[in-house]
Amino acid sequence: MENGFELSLQCGGTSDAFTFEGGSLMIGRDPSCEVVIDAEGVELHHASLMLEGTKIQVEDLTGGHKTFVNGYDISGRVEVECPATVQMGPAVLRVKVVEAAPDAHKAESGRMIFTMCASPGGAQAEAAEPTEEMLLGMGPRSASVQVRYALGKEIARGGMGRIYTGEDPQLKRVVAVKVSNVSSGGDPRFAREAEVLGNLPHPNIIPIHAMGEDEDGFPFYSMKLVKGQTLKDVIRHLRDGDAGAKKTYTRVRLLTVFRKICDAMAFAHSKGILHRDLKPENVMVGEFGEVLVMDWGLAKKMGEKDPLAADGAAVAVPASGASEDFGLTLDGQVVGTPQYMSPEQAEGRLIEIDERADIYSMGAILYSILTLRPPVEADTLDELLSKVKSGQITSMTTKRSWVESGKKLPGKPQEMGAEVPEALRAVTRKAMSLEKEKRYQTVEEFAADIDAYLSGRATQAEHAGALRQLVLLMQRHKSVTALLVLILIGAAAFTVQLIASERVASENAYIAEENAKKAAKERENARGKAAEANLALVEAAERDLDGEEMQRRLAEVPKDLRDQKWEYLNAKLESAEVSAEAKDNSHWTAMVQHPQKPGVLVTLQANGWVRTLDLKKQGGGIEDLCRVDTTNLNDVLALSRDGSKAAVLRHQKDKGVVKASLIEVVQLAGGKKIAELKLPPVRVMQLTFSADGASLLCVYKTQSEEVWHVEMRNFQNAVQWERANEFGVWAEISEKGEAVHMYSERTGTERNGILILDAKTGALQRTLARPGVWGPFLMSASAQLSSTFVAKVDCTSVVGIHPSGRFLRRYETATGKLIFENRVQGVNTIAALPDSGIIVTLGQRSDRCVVLQYWHQDTGLLVKSMPLLGNMKGGWRLVVHPKTGDVAVVNGKKLRAWNFQPSKPVTTLMSQSRGFDFLGEPWRLARISGNGSESAVEIFDTRLTDYLKKPLAVFKSPELNAGKLVASKDGAVVAVKSHATGKVRFYRRKGNTYEETFKGSPPFIPPNWALNADGSRLWTGAGVYDTISGKEVCRMNREGLDVPQNVSGASDWVDGKTIVEIVLIKADWEGAPEDAVERAMVLWDAETGARTLRVDAPDANGLCISPDGRQICEAGNDMRLRLRNGKTLAVEREFRAHDAPISDVEWHPKLPLLVSSSEDLTVRVWNLNDGHLVEELHGIASQAEQRAERVAWSPDGRTLAVAAGGNQTVGFYEMASTKPKPQAGAPAPPKPAPVPPR
Questions:
Q1: pTM of the model
Q2: Of these four, 23, 251, 660, 965, which has the most CB atoms within 10 Å of its CB?
């Protein structure tokens, strides 16, 4: 006969067995499971089993660390050979292969319903201690540990046992095996340590693998073998001056090790476990940075009677004057290691020991890390215990020599005070306070102060004042520190000069008057510097998306000093394009998009009014539609697709108790009731009209159930179809209306993932995902699941927020493949703009700051961030209108809205970013096309309909791959340089075509490459060359100069005789290293090759020249545009333009406009008359490498060409800011020339 499986289940005091032919089983507390275990510690759906052949597949459904297979905690799915043991909370299931079924429960009709309570009567029991068979998954208790593990050398020994290396033959891995010194039952600490480790699955706590007894009855257990050294050894090496240790274990590295100890102990305390013997010797630091807390033999569960006291152990304190090692662990009434134990432990007050005793010991470990010494020293153990009891901690600032084992060791005393910062001393003192009420009350508080120190913030322990916090703020934002120092120097100078002025003024009235004027000027300068300092702090807060700090610092800038930079930063907080307030002082409770009116929302207010709100109108253009009864009105609103009907939800109550829930369907215009549907008391409800508007898709959870119901009801309240007992449901009707897309967490091959249902019958058509394939990224059973989950229209992928609100993830639905993952801040609301390809999130940054962010839905690229002042607890809502790209954020009675539609080019052209140019006319273009042997220069007349097939000229050249092309302003000359060979070819216009006039190999200094206005001269960085003959006009002396890498537009002709270039030059400031360089801007004489001027330009990243040659615009890495004088290079004006370094800039040929591109993925047009932004292109890149690398205006200034990196595409955009404004009575403007299609 075929093999079957015998399954025996034990839980608490109950056990039973049954046979199973094979297949899948679901185990959990849910009554729908095949095996129901009603016990604490067992999840609703805990695990699924697949039994086939001689193997068993086990999948943990809890998220990890709650299901054990053969003693190993698992997450996800594993497969093992039978026999095997599976533990779920207190329940232990043993599975083995059999040929014939014994007398036990058998599956009936291929399905089995098996229910077990934790104990007779259904009482729930404590989690059972794992048995040896469960842990080992193998033979009887008499199995030899030597045979089982092939023991190797002894690597450690202690009071409880010895530790050997061993090899696990089953998993083929090297482990550590600890064998007790006494036979079974002789040392309860050994079993207790194994039990504790088995219940503390954490990456910083040594994991136990298996447990048993050898043939002589000595208990043993195996655990992970960590190759490394103890923290005690690390400290000893540092104290001995080991060079390798000093290089590896810096203070930051040691604090990182300590931080992981905090993580381990915080987890143990959360499980109610105290360690009671924390010391450097019990912390292992692995070769690869892993940190593990060891030796849990003295561990105790909080609230339980102390096991050592219960054993009646005597006080094991050596006699006075004995020379025992003070680092050894004591048990009995004094539990722990003297130099690291808390005062209450030293006094034997075991009943008072709680988490704060461990926190004291952690403080002692921190003391040792910082000073390389233990915190308490003495000549005898009695003296040592006395000092611990009285809190006599050795000062961290005194000179002293090392004491170990009661003996002073030779060596020079060390001065520790200069090495330990006051902040860390304060943290250590607080943790080691004599009174435990003054210590940190939780490990989390302790760890928070360590994190604060590591991040440069003030710790709670040091009680830092305003000055200290200011110093730390400056250290965290070093980019503004120099500015602040200058302000202080300027203020001090002002004070000195002011005093001098007043002294002289008393002697001479005339001088006094002059000095008063000077003082006023100095005072004004000081005000200006203070304003600059505040704006620098605003920029620092902006980078941290700290809207609260931005608002505070912006307000401190005097109104008369609020310049363009202030307005730019203030716009980050006041960025809404449309603002509106609810009418009647009644807050909004629900908002949905109007299905027929783009950009219009339909709103429901607490006073029952249903109104429209136009996101295109300032103030919202609010209009009344109807008013519904407010009696027990809920915050649910749905609209039919034709916009004629609305549905709202209310409750029927009797003496405050909800007896039923009613769905009211009304005419949107006027509010006439059409239908009323009655349901059981509903806790959460999602409503959607069917495509024909005659039925409602109802997704709800009743007040008495944890499961969801999905129903299609008509207006006669008849249920057309339903799906009950679902979990974590979200549903929507497809765009065509023929299907329902439903997400469900219902376990089973057809009930988990995205389900496609027939909208009329509810029949399952297909499933787009298998169970559990995505992992825990949705908020199960949340009140608004749709707020944490969005799917593409075709449901091929899903984007969701991890339950922690810290990760935005996109998965492929069919395979569960993770497409992208981004870290976010406290996000709890998500929406999609599918037509724009954008995901919108709303999250909490701080108590008073919310952050709205846009992400590219395909790549997860962060497109834009906006800090908003407020708190999510105030009932914030995120509403979008997908068709128009409108995004609204609602908080009570206030609404702010933005429109985000990615800019679309009129057409595109395939070309490299530096491989195209306009040729004097907006309709004449040149480009480098093709690759390798197919590369060529093509010149087009875009007025022709088939210009791509009929170019004006084609010059094939295989050497032009990845080359550069530049044209003179009049388009008469085109120069092309080969990247591979460095050869240059010149083409000159002849009639309506072009002919090659010269080719050669003049020396080049990349990336320099520019023709003068008429094309008669070419600048190469090395020199200037005649474009007709190719002869050198002049050569530049570049001694001491270099060029910066990845600079866009590093040089250009200012006029016919002068060239400007961004260069790297040797730093000449005092104390500069030999190889130090800095950026500068230089002017060259194009006739002699002489360098005529040099100015510092530390942030220069690109440049362009005004059409009249009078000004040079510098694109800055510091996000600013600077207008420099074309002859003196003096900065005449500058303004903030972007949120990341600027990659390119171009002057408009006719209007006072500048266009700039940036690494913030935007292209912006600026009005030079007032420095204000007039137009912006955004959403033009889906990946960072696709950002705009080059921008260029057409000669008539009506079209903007944007060359994107990565995909070799140039997009052509018609800019609204450059369109001529029609005048009354004026003829219609001529039709713009066409631009190239793809």
A1: 0.56
A2: 965
pLDDT at 24: 85
Q: What is the pLDDT of residue 1213?
A: 93
- Domain stop point among 409, 439, 464: 464
pLDDT value, residue 103: 45
pLDDT in tens, 192-207: 888 888 888 888 998 8
Q: Report the run of H or E that residue 955 belongs to, with start and end.
A: strand 953-956
- Mean pLDDT is lowest, of 89-93, 149-153, 533-537, 942-946, for 149-153
Taking alpha carbons only, the member of 381, 480, 486, 375 closest to residue 433 is: 375
What element of type H or E holds 191?
helix 188-198
| Residue range 208-218: mean pLDDT, rounded | 79
* Strands of the 849-856 sheet, one edge to the other: 827-833, 838-846, 849-856, 862-869
Residues with Cβ within 8 Å of residue 882, at least 6 apart in sequence? 593, 832, 833, 834, 835, 836
- What are residue 95's phi and psi, to 5 degrees? -125, 130
In whole angstroms, give the CA distance from residue 1169 to residue 942: 34
Strand partners, 910: 1209
The residue type at 777: F
Band the pLDDT of 116: cuts 50, 70, 90: low
Catalytic residue positions, numbered: 277
Overall average pLDDT of the 669-676 stretch: 93
Q: Residue 793: is its pLDDT beyond 80?
A: no
Q: Is residue 592 part of a domain?
A: yes
Element (H, E) at 966: strand 964-967
Does one domain contain both 69 and 174?
no
Strand locations in 673-767 (E): 673-679, 682-689, 695-702, 708-714, 719-726, 730-733, 739-745, 752-758, 764-767
pLDDT band (50, 70, 90) for residue 673? very high
pLDDT tens string 704-734: 888 889 999 999 999 999 988 777 677 889 8
The pair of three-digit structure tokens given for residue 357, joined into one six-digit string: 């005793």
d(CA 126, CA 109): 35
- What whole-number distance in Å separates Cα of residue 702 and Cα of residue 724? 11
Beta bridge partners of 1114: 1103, 1122
Which amino acid is located at 654 in the chain?
Answer: D
**How many residues does the structure list for the chain?**
1238
Contact 550, 851 (CB under 8 A): no
Residue 64 lies in domain: 5-114
Say what angle helices 478-507 and 466-476 make with each other, to 10 degrees: 130
Q: Is the pLDDT of residue 876 over 90?
A: no
In a domain, 1153, yes or no: no
Q: Residue 879 and residue 852: Cα distance in Å, rounded? A: 12
Each residue of 1002-1054: pLDDT tens digit?
887 777 789 999 999 999 889 999 988 888 999 998 888 888 876 656 899 99
CATH number at residue 372: 1.10.510.10
Q: pLDDT, tens digit, for every residue of 1052-1097? A: 999 999 999 999 998 877 777 877 889 999 999 999 999 999 999 9
CATH code at 813?
Answer: 2.40.10.480
Report the C-alpha gap between 217 and 182 in whole angstroms.
9
Q: Confidence class of residue 125 from pLDDT cuts 50, 70 and 90? A: very low
Instruction: Tell me phi and psi for residue 688, to 5 degrees.
Output: -145, 130
Q: Which pLDDT score, from 0 to 100, does residue 1234 have?
A: 43
708: CB partners within 8 A, 6+ apart: 699, 700, 701, 725, 726, 727, 728, 729, 744, 781
E strand or H helix at 1132, and its extent?
Answer: strand 1131-1136
Phi/psi for 430 (5° steps) reads -65, -45
Q: How many structural domains are present in the chain?
A: 5
Neighbours of 1216 (CB within 10 A): 9
User: Closest Cα to residue 1104, out of 1124, 1084, 1120, 1090?
Assistant: 1124
Measured CA to CA, the distance from residue 366 to residue 231 in angstroms comes to: 11
